[in-house]
Specification:
about 5% helix, mainly beta, OB fold (Dihydrolipoamide Acetyltransferase, E2P)
Length: about 100
């Protein structure tokens, strides 16, 4: 399902110490989504170890992302947890 998401883009280095070590991108939402998430992962269009040039230029900026909402169910011994991530199509900076 295509949706619009508003928030600030940030990144974290993940898989530290492995050959796949690299940045992962997130959107800090202005308010929690229905699943009570504040930080939504953004699927990048690059290798695990590489920066996504489209996302990287928006680090630290307020944006509107148009993209597909991807819902995932995680099943563990503690129960079932649902989360959402974004497969982005378009990103626009929010100018103040």
């Amino acid at each position: 399902m295509i949706k619009e998401f508003k928030g600030k883009v940030f990144s974290k280095i993940e898989r530290i110490g492995s050959r796949s070590e690299g940045p992962e991108y997130f959107l800090k939402l202005l308010k929690p989504n229905e699943l009570n998430q504040i930080d939504l992962p953004i699927r990048k269009n690059a290798g695990l170890w590489q920066e996504d040039p489209n996302l990287h230029q928006f680090l630290g900026k307020m944006v509107i992302i148009t993209g597909e909402s991807i819902r995932i169910k995680h099943v563990s011994s503690d129960g079932t947890l649902k989360s959402e991530s974004i497969a982005y199509k378009e990103i626009k900076e929010i100018k103040k």
